[in-house]
Amino acid sequence: TLYNKNNSSIVIEIFIPNDNKILLTIMNTEALGTSPRMTFIKHKS
């Protein structure tokens, strides 16, 4: 879990369920509503 040094209300969670997928969740603890969520999937070349 990462915190923004200048804005402690922004929290970034990084979750790696396996080698091919990384889930990023960006949360603003002061704002209500949905948090943007990004999923990175590594493609096998």
TrEMBL record:
GO terms for cellular component: cytoplasm. Pfam families: Staphostatin_A. One of its GO terms (molecular function) is cysteine-type endopeptidase inhibitor activity. InterPro entries: Protease_inh_B-barrel_dom, Staphostatin_A, Staphostatin_A/B. Gene3D superfamilies: beta-Barrel protease inhibitors. Residues 1-42 form the Staphostatin A domain. This is Staphostatin A.
